[in-house]
């Protein structure tokens, strides 16, 4: 992505480049141990048009770095390599399988006079290892969600199948990586929960129970409203990545028809089904279509004996979405889908408007919506709950934060500090721009607050944060 | 290459450039409003003593310059040759170094594949661009030659892509590379120290080596023979590097780019200074009086400034060698921040046997030993008549000062640096941090604070951290840097009010703690 920096007044303009993906590759050093066979190690390489020898060289460097680091640290593998121009992130998700992501440092191109080539200045301190390390791990988790482990594929179809699967998945997935908008939220990879009163929550729970009882094929259910999670029957780690997929990929792709008017051509055929607003986001777009295919994406989640493969049905009515997961051994038919549509559609429509109504009432009580007084990020490691008033909207492609990127990086720096020691801590810093940033870590929770009170002192800042904790987190103890 | 050498030669002829009125970075908002650079407690009344830059940032900038250095472009080749011979002719100095080495035989015989070797908190390696081992902190260079070969291979591999390797990060372990042609320095830390801090330490090691050989000679050697074994020239001097590494872990001065003074009544200090000033000679550039690791006074030639790094290298040289105790020492020393191309010659002697007071007279002339010896005599004659000498000896007897004297409850320790004078003060290490391990941990905490405040792109005005073992507060203004360490019982309110209280105390004591009126010849 290219942005023209406005600050140059001298006519010639500095060009500023944001961080970008230089390459992404997966290798297994045991696949081509002999000289001349190095190419066999490489299972996936993006960009694919890179010349073979260069691929081999770059993989060789990673192997050398990993090996060299073992001299000093036999148990903890190398995680990143910093160079002037880029950073490389290493991740070994399964034994001997290495994923490497190379990200170019942001840079400024300064034009030179006399037709000399422009000077390039690399900004080496801008990328946070924790953030991009988390991005690589997320890449793997997403692959695993849809394909299972590398080992599983190797067992079923050997290297050829693995190469095919990797190619198919990462070719598309890498295009959705937007490295310039990654920040602390990627480190947490948390789940935003929808705040709800007890009554409505019980209604949702009983809905889930009813559906699971009527359609006994359903193994797990998850319920979301407004891209926020309300109920999930999955393991936390599986839900975490599924949530990521739903909110950054599936839902954004399907949001347009809902925003469109009833008669808009964008809206899928809903004729004959005026009883409810329910529709399938995965599987058949229109049940009435005689050509409709009843194929759903398959996902892999952890089970007692390793993993299990499931059909993922995502069904949505207005802002409410329900995910139903059914063992992949079962073949899903038109009859089943019609049954599900008939049962879930009307109920979910009703539930969606109930939640909406409750939510509006609650909000009216707590005061009209306005720019949040406090800019903060909260994360709970125990239940993965996250809350941010800094991010207006975060999807894979859009990340609007209401604060300066440098402040976001200071949050990241504080987070790194917290990660170093396993004890409760509080950090309060004042940036050069006079913003105050407060980080608190207590038990398994982390809270980051940004305050724009230039003339405040340490004590006043502390009081402000206390006030925030009292209003937003009154039941959580933070070290004072 | 208008870089290092060029600049240095120019300044050598025209006198060191006076400290540039550094960009007064907009660090207003000091706790005492209106406190601008030069008026903070501890700021000298006249010009600064040191050519001091904004802490370590300037070092990193220079690394780039030097990386791009084109070989063979040194402007002062003739001069170098002369200096080269000077070094070779300096048999006595080399022999002294050698004897020193044998007496302090290093316990290096360590199995480099053992867990014990791996688990050292910090490794430092120096190698030539041909991958030849020059120095290792632990183990022997021979046993590590293949490891160092790999290091060099990594450096050159990345270089081949027109890129520069900086560091490798693993959980709980960092490897930092510094290429300073013709040398490559590699540091490995397991203590959670930041990359920037480790890099700063590698810079010091680099300058330590340059101070023994000059950069000109170093370049000269490797231009002639790329795979020269530099250990042949450095043999017997490893203890200097060992000691410097030890200092880097202990001495806050190296972290702050500053020097601390022996607390002494200003009247006494002024007498000592003026006695030194009177004992001048044609080629005498700096007269430095040390008390252990603390500066008593420094008199310099007008317009010549000593960089804090150079001064720390002198401290290290004096502090590491017991041979200077035996009489008058005469040794060549390159002060790399002054001029990487040539040697100064230092006359080093203790004022009395068994005393901590050590006088260093730095001359430009190799043949100046007797002149310097005479300077010392004149200084001693003058000083011994005055009561100031006694006062100084008294000051040496008592310990520096305890943090209790400041009168701030829960305050355990602090560092205060006056930016304009390049001097810092700090009380004695309190009981809780007395053990080696705890003292290093405290320094580690200060290093972390320093790193955060001086982040290259996201610097901070202040940093407060409240943890289970202690509460820390650090701040930077245009005039000073302050690092406070409180017990975990201290509140934020207490920490906040402590800043003003401490500044007032330092102002009251500044006569004693700092050198307020530095002199020139």
From TrEMBL, chain A:
Residues 22-148 form the CCZ1/INTU/HSP4 first Longin domain. Residues 218-343 form the CCZ1/INTU second Longin domain. Residues 370-468 form the CCZ1/INTU/HPS4 third Longin domain. One of its GO terms (biological process) is vesicle-mediated transport. It holds the Pfam family Intu_longin_1. Belongs to the CCZ1 family. This is CCZ1 homolog, vacuolar protein trafficking and biogenesis associated. It comes from Xiphophorus maculatus.
From TrEMBL, chain B:
One of its GO terms (biological process) is protein targeting to vacuole. Pfam families: Fuz_longin_1, Fuz_longin_2, Fuz_longin_3. Residues 91-111 have a biased composition (Basic and acidic residues). Residues 1-114 are annotated as: Disordered. Residues 122-244 form the FUZ/MON1/HPS1 first Longin domain. Residues 410-510 form the FUZ/MON1/HPS1 third Longin domain. Residues 282-381 form the FUZ/MON1/HPS1 second Longin domain. GO terms for cellular component: Mon1-Ccz1 complex. Plays an important role in membrane trafficking through the secretory apparatus. PANTHER family: SAND PROTEIN-RELATED, VACUOLAR FUSION PROTEIN MON1 HOMOLOG A. Belongs to the MON1/SAND family. This is Vacuolar fusion protein MON1 homolog. The lineage of its organism: Eukaryota, Metazoa, Chordata, Craniata, Vertebrata.
């Amino acid at each position: 992505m290219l942005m023209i920096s406005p600050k140059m007044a001298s006519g010639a303009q500095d060009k500023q480049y944001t961080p970008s993906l230089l390459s992404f590759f997966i290798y297994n050093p045991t696949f081509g141990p002999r000289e001349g066979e190095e190419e066999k190690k490489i299972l996936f390489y993006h960009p694919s048009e890179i010349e073979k020898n260069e691929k081999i060289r770059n993989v060789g460097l990673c192997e050398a770095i990993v090996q060299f680091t073992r001299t000093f640290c036999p148990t903890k593998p190398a995680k990143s390599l910093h160079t002037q121009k880029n950073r490389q992130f290493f991740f070994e998700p399964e034994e001997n399988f290495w994923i490497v992501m190379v990200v170019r440092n942001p840079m400024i191109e300064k034009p030179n006079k006399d037709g000399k080539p422009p000077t390039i200045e690399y900004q080496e301190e801008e990328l946070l290892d924790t953030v991009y390390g988390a991005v690589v791990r997320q890449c793997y988790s997403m692959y695993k969600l849809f394909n299972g482990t590398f080992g599983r594929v190797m067992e079923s179809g050997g290297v050829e199948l693995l190469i095919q699967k990797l190619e198919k998945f990462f070719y598309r997935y890498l295009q959705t990586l937007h490295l310039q908008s990654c920040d602390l939220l990627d480190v947490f990879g948390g789940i935003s929960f929808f705040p709800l009163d007890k009554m409505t929550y019980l209604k949702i729970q009983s809905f889930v129970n009813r559906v699971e009882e009527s359609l006994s094929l359903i193994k797990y259910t998850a319920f979301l409203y407004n891209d926020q999670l309300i109920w999930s029957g999955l393991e936390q780690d599986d839900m975490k990545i599924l949530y990521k997929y739903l909110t950054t990929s599936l839902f954004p792709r399907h949001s347009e028809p809902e925003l469109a008017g009833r008669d808009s051509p964008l809206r899928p055929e809903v004729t004959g089904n005026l009883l409810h607003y329910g529709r399938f986001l995965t599987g058949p777009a229109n049940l009435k279509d005689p050509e409709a295919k009843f194929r759903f994406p398959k996902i892999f989640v952890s089970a007692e004996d390793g993993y299990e493969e499931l059909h993922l049905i995502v069904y949505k009515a207005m802002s409410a979405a329900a995910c139903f997961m059914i063992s992949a051994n079962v073949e899903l038919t038109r009859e089943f889908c019609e049954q599900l549509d008939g049962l879930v559609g009307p109920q979910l429509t009703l539930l969606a408007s109930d939640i909406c109504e409750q939510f509006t009432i609650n909000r009216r009580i707590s005061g009209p919506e306005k720019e949040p007084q406090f800019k903060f990020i909260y994360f709970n490691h125990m239940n993965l709950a996250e809350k941010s008033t800094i991010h207006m909207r975060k999807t894979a492609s859009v990340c609007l934060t209401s604060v300066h990127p440098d402040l976001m990086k200071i949050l990241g720096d504080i987070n790194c500090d917290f990660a170093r020691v396993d004890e409760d801590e509080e950090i309060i810093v004042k940036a050069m721009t006079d913003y105050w940033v407060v980080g608190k870590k207590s038990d398994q929770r982390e809270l980051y607050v940004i305050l724009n009170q230039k003339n405040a002192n340490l004590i006043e800042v502390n009081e402000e944060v206390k006030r925030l904790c009292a209003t937003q987190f009154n039941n959580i103890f933070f070290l004072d | 290459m208008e870089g290092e050498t060029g600049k240095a030669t120019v300044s050598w002829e025209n006198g060191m450039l006076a400290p540039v009125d550094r960009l007064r970075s907009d660090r207003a908002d000091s706790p005492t409003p209106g406190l601008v650079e030069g008026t903070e407690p501890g700021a000298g009344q006249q010009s600064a003593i040191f050519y001091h830059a904004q802490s370590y940032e300037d070092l990193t900038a220079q690394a780039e310059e030097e990386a791009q250095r084109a070989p063979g472009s040194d402007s002062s080749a003739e001069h170098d040759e002369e200096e080269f011979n000077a070094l070779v002719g300096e048999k006595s100095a080399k022999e002294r170094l050698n004897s020193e080495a044998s007496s302090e035989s290093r316990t290096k015989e360590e199995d480099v594949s053992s867990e014990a070797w791996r688990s050292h908190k910090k490794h430092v390696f120096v190698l030539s661009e041909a991958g030849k081992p020059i120095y290792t902190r632990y183990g022997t260079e021979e046993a590590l030659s293949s490891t160092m070969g790999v290091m060099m291979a990594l450096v050159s591999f990345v270089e081949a892509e027109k890129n520069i390797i900086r560091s490798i990060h693993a959980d709980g372990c960092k490897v930092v590379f510094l290429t300073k042609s013709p040398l490559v320095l590699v540091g490995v830390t397991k203590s959670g120290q930041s990359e920037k801090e480790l890099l700063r330490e590698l810079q010091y090691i680099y300058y330590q080596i340059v101070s023994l050989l000059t950069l000109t000679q170093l370049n000269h050697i490797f231009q002639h023979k790329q795979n020269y074994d530099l250990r042949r020239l450095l043999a017997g001097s490893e203890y200097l590097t060992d000691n410097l590494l030890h200092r880097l872990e202990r001495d806050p001065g190296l972290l702050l780019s500053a020097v601390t003074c022996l607390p002494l009544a200003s009247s006494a200090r002024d007498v000592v200074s003026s006695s030194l000033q009177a004992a001048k000679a044609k080629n005498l550039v700096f007269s430095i009086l040390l008390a252990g690791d603390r500066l008593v006074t420094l008199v310099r030639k007008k317009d010549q400034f000593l960089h804090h790094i150079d001064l720390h290298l002198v401290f290290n040289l004096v502090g590491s060698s017991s041979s200077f105790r035996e009489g008058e020492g005469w040794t060549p020393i390159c002060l790399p921040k002054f001029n990487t191309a040539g040697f100064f010659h230092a006359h080093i002697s203790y004022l009395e046997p068994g005393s901590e007071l050590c006088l260093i007279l730095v001359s430009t002339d190799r043949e100046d030993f007797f002149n310097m010896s005479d300077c010392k005599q004149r200084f001693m004659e003058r000083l011994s008549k005055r009561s100031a000498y006694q006062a100084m000896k008294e000051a040496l007897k008592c310990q520096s000062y305890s943090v209790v004297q400041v009168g701030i409850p829960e305050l355990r320790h602090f560092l205060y640096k006056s930016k304009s004078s390049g001097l810092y003060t700090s009380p004695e290490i309190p009981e809780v941090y007395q053990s080696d391990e705890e003292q290093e941990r405290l320094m580690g905490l200060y290093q972390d604070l320093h790193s955060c405040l001086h982040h290259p792109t996201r610097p901070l005005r202040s940093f407060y951290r409240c943890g289970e073992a202690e509460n820390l507060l650090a701040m930077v203004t245009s005039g000073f840097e302050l690092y406070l360490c409180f017990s975990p019982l201290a509140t934020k309110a207490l920490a906040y009010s402590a800043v003003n209280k401490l500044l007032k105390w330092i102002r009251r004591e500044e006569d004693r703690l700092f050198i307020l009126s530095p002199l020139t010849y």
